[in-house]
Amino acid sequence: MEPNLLNVSSSYRQLIDANRAEITVRIKGSSVISNNTALEKAKEVRQLVEALTSYGLDKTAIQLQSVVAEVNNGVLLRSSSATYSLLIRCDDLEQLPDLLGIITSQKQASLENVSWGFPDDPAMINTWVQAALELAKAKAKAMAQTLGVRIIGVHRVDDQYGSEHHPYAQDAEFRKSASFMRSGGSGISKDSLGLAMIHRKQIEVKVQVAFIISQDENFSI
Fold this sequence. Notes:
Elements: E1 5-17, E2 20-29, H1 38-41, H2 43-55, E3 62-69, E4 82-90, H3 96-104, E5 109-117, H4 122-147, E6 149-164, H5 171-182, H6 190-193, E7 200-215
Antiparallel strand pairs: 1-7, 2-4, 2-5, 3-4, 6-7
């Protein structure tokens, strides 16, 4: 026999700050190097890598993603030009403005995108679930008191997670900023980049709880 149920839903929202970022950069190179040695052998790529590592970025934070060679008349030569795509990891957001300044100061570099990473701590997520469940309990208690029923147990619990965040800058704004730096602009700011140096997203934890109830015989409307 199916028990009498009181279905209650609740949600808990929390804003969290990004704690890391990944920067995508394209570089126009004057030669084709088709493997990771491009970080050392492709002149334009090497210049950026040296500038970043001289600043203090670990070389392991720089990865070659792709190489697209430009072919003339169907012939690919070692001296052909190429476009290199690099992924640069920034684990300390305090360094992000400086890293972006170094990248955009390179003549052949084009800043394509910055993607944000967020904490993924199970203990933190459990805290949010607990908060959502506490809200559901309080809501169920108020409903039960008003409806004249008693909560005697829990039949089922479902949870769901969602998040939303919005980039502060589009690719066109990044390219505009890079052009500004190459044309003699000095310094870098969130306004010139169109990029907020602190990025947040909202986490929402939803829970739905089916409480088992029994009728309170003393209740009357």
